[in-house]
Amino acid sequence: MSDRRSLWRTRPIAFSMKAPCVLAAVLLAASCAPDDRALLGSGDVLVEVDRVELEESPDDPIVGVEYVGERPDGGYIIADRHAGRVRLFDSSGRRAEVVGGPGDGPGELEEPAGAVELPDGRILVVQRGSPRLTIFFPDSAPTITDVPGQYGFWADRAGRGFVAGVATRDTRFALFDEDGTALSTFASRDPAISETPFWIYFADEHAATIGDRIAVNTSLFPIVRLFDLTGDSVGVLGEAPPDWAPASAPPVSDLSGPGNRERIADWSRSFTVVRQIAAVGDSLLVVEYGRHDPRDSNPDFVTSTTADVYSVSGERLASGLKLPGPVVGGGRRVLVLVAEPPAPWTIVALAWRGTER
Questions:
Q1: Where are the domains of the chain?
Q2: pTM, full prediction
Q3: Can you name the CATH fold of 21-55+62-352?
Q4: Distance CA 180, CA 186 (A)
Q5: pLDDT per residue over 60-95, tens digit each?
Q6: Start-end of H helices in the chain
């Protein structure tokens, strides 16, 4: 059923000499910082501008926070995939609304994986459980339409409409207009993903909207591809960090028989992946790296390690940043998850130094 009523401080390792003028302000601020700031990370490039604890109902707790979107009014929206709900919060973290519920009927959701709120109050949800788009309206019953893919895995606003991850045989993303009509699909998967044993099970697709660009990454590769709002390719950015360990083809002959699962898990820990990408405003992109760390409760778990910051023009502005928690979203700021149960779910919003206001 649908209920319509209801961070961080980092130490920069390297900077591009061609960075924008705001970088000079970063360096100046670092040189003027008091000595005790060294304990927190002298020369911060991303500064905490907000910290919120997400309010929960004892009868309807948050099951998971995989990706957090920004609402038009400055609040937050979360597709709580395993709870079958989309949760909306105001800017202080108070619960504002919950839509959906587990199921496949009208207004019900089967593993919602991406959610977007439009300025007029409509909430658009793509789900992983079946290839469909559900649109919740403020004053009328929800509608359901198909999406051009096998399942959904992400969504964000793009121009007047939105963009979503919708896996097809040949492409990974789709652009929609503001009424939910699919306009085009784009971003093909590298053939090596399906041709190399086991890679397809460990390759994740990431995306972020940066102004009039859509950045797309496949986790096994450090390069980020850029597309415009029609889905046309407009270039690439990024390079492997110094400690990047590329994925290899596992020795299939050693992965059969007893102990197969453990050997695959050990192999998956041997290479670096891009864990997430996220926008900072309309011109910067955070690329977060990590390593697979399979767990009984989550065989796809990835531990974050470091992050780089790029301008949309491709300049690497900072590298080797140590994050206090995993990146879970972007937009006006980068959103980082710094606490989860048994502590309250807590999100920190970060801005590039010099652009806090």
A1: 21-55+62-352
A2: 0.86
A3: Neuraminidase (2.120.10)
A4: 17
A5: 999 999 999 999 989 999 999 999 999 999 999 999
A6: 21-31, 191-195, 199-202, 260-268
